[in-house]
Each structure stands twice: as C-alpha cells, then as structure tokens.
Amino acid sequence: MTYNFDSFNSNNITKSETVLFQCTKKTLLLNINVTNIKHQTVPLNIYIIKYNDDLVWLAKNKYFDGNSSQELFSMGKLVLYTGDKLCVQSDVDNAFNIYTSVLQGIV
C-alpha cells in the first residue's frame, strides 16, 4: 500500500462554500492552519460534508483575530473517507489563507 503526504491551500475563501479537499481514498487529516489576513476579527466555518451528505462541523462561526494564525487539531487526527469533502466559508471574502496537511491511502 502506498501512502501519500499531501497539502492543500486556499486564499480564495468567500461567502460561498469553498471545497479545500475532496477525498478520493481513505485519508488522515493531520492539521488545518488558518491565517486571518484582514485587520479585523472575522468568523469562519470549517466543516466536512460526508460521502452520505451528513454535515460534521469542525468550527462553526469561530472568530479569528485580525492578522493572526491558528493551527486546528494539531494534536488530534481525523479520518476522512472516499467522497468526503473538507469545506470552508467566511462572512468576509478573501479574509483567510488556509493550509491543510493530509496522509492519503491509509487502511
């Protein structure tokens, strides 16, 4: 079995849903780093749309201070399955840079 470390990032987070990553095989989500690049405090939603359309909230209306970064679940890991989508949405367009690290192909 081949395992692949990979990363995904976006700086185009908008009021519409942005899909950061869609699983094509069983994947371990290692971390999410969020940077608010605005000078104001801004809320962000981070969630998983499961392969069966269930919604799992990771952060709902979580406020991030302006010009700050935060790493989410650096000590914990999440298992994602084929068809799962990691999504984000903000009330302010282009306020965030988001970087994720994953390990794909786990069994």
Please give the structural blueprint:
Layout: E1 4-10, E2 18-22, E3 27-36, E4 42-49, E5 55-64, E6 68-72, E7 78-80, E8 85-90, E9 96-104
Antiparallel strand pairs: 1-9, 2-8, 3-6, 3-7, 3-9, 4-5, 4-8
Structure description:
- The mean pLDDT is 93.
- The protein has strands at residues 4-10, 18-22, 27-36, 42-49, 55-64, 68-72, 78-80, 85-90, 96-104.
- The protein is mainly β.
Catalogue the unreliable spans: none
Order of H and E elements:
EEEEEEEEE
Record field, number of beta strands: 9
Q: Biggest β-sheet, characterized?
A: 5 strands, antiparallel
Oligomer: single chain
Q: Radius of gyration, rounded?
A: 14 Å
- Helix content range of the residues, please? under 10%
What is the number of helical segments per DSSP (H or I, 4+ residues)? 0
> How many angstroms does the end-to-end distance come to?
8 Å
